[in-house]
Amino acid sequence: MEQTQLQAVWEQILTKMKETLAESAFKWFKSVKPISLTATGLVLSAQNDLVKDWITSHYLTIIEDAVGAVLGSKRKVDFLVLPSVQPEPEPEPAKPEKDADSTQDTKEAKEAAGHSSRKKEDPNQGTLFQEQPPAPVDNGDMHIVAPGDRSSLNPKYTFETFVTGSSNRFAHAAAMAVAESPGKVYNPFFMYGGVGLGKTHLMHAIGNRVLQNHPEMRVLYVSSEQFTNEIIRAIQEGKAELFRQKYRTIDVLMVDDIQFLSGKQSTQEEFFNTFNALHVADKQIILSSDRPPREVQKLEDRLRSRFEGGLITDIQAPDLETRIAILKNKALLDHVDVPNDVLMFIANRIDSNIRELEGALTRVVAYASLINKPVTTDVVAEALKDVFPNSHKKEVTLEVIQEIVATYFKIRIEDLHSKKRTRSIAFPRQIAMYLCRELTDTSLPQIGNFFGGRDHTTVLHAYDKIAKEREENAKLHKIIKDLIESIQKM
User: Fold this and answer.
1) What is the pTM of this model?
2) Is 267 annotated as belonging to a binding site?
3) Is 274 annotated as a binding residue?
4) Whether 340 and 300 share a structural domain
5) What are the pLDDT digits (tens) for 116-149?
6) Domain of 377, in residue numbers
7) Is there a domain that residue 125 lies in?
């Protein structure tokens, strides 16, 4: 959703809240801004921890009710602490009574960036570029990035095409905050997670949004391998000065797979100086890795310390609901019509990463087209038999779900069919009904009949109850996630 649309929705929510809140209470929301809105959650910004804690402890239910009234369904509301960004004042003449500590801090920051004239702080000393003569600027492959240049960005990777779920919601919201105020919040911004989970997508989305809002900025996305190769080339061709000009005049620098700097001492040295030069100038730095900084082996402590000085967020493998949403989004973007049972079939069998998930759908659609057959679960099983051996897993059935749930809660399957209404039985029964609705295409009446001849309204009530509690209760969310994983392994 575009920022203007998001702001308009937030204004409607505020108007609804005014009907309930006193004017004195409403003042708490003066600095609150919307960050992101998805089908399941709304992320808002708070100016500081005090505002966040006060609002969440006193007014969270009122916000959720207003969201439900405006959007037609309740969403989980989360907060990020984003200090308000004020424009920097014009520099003033130096005053004789300047704070000594403040003066020293500024001086040390400049020296860390290589601005000191003392030889031991010169960023050219002790790096790969030591004793290299300055090279004349040319416009070869190592060109200076021009304002508004999008050549390093994939235009398809935007926030609008990124599918959010519980596994990536925080990273998505933080990325949007960085994109809206580059260099002002979360700097550096460090994302980590397994291969194919959306880190690269979010980096490009940040870059695309920054240039949409600030076409005058210089944005560069590179892999750590490209950064290393350019350093080597600069040494070989005597282009040290051009290398520095390229990387130290950037407004937003994004380096993917930063873990591959591991063990490359000279490359780490030059990246350290580049990092300092950008950071002291309030330029945004965004990094991604397959692991958190503390787990990157053979990484200099001073680099690790700087990486940990900003916001670190992880991206987990998508849960079942998110995988289905990703497949639906892929089908929509590719303009293909794929039945829901096929999407469920694929999502149940591929849970490792998004690339494999989307690749599987592309293969299935192409295979069905080549053999001139509609896309069915049988076609999926045939198309994926060589690529994904697990594609022939057993179909998820109501019997399997009941067996897994009964085992997990240490009750008998007969208890799920019984009329017992004690919480130790009724709660697992409701969870089992929820999972039957989520993981199969069985109708509500059929599910109700399978659970001891219950009415379909009982099943619907159980589904709605568990779905709502799952959004609000992290422990229940973990239980259901574990159950789904166990069911999928059967």
Assistant:
1) 0.55
2) no
3) no
4) no
5) 333 333 433 334 444 333 333 333 456 788 888 8
6) 320-392
7) yes
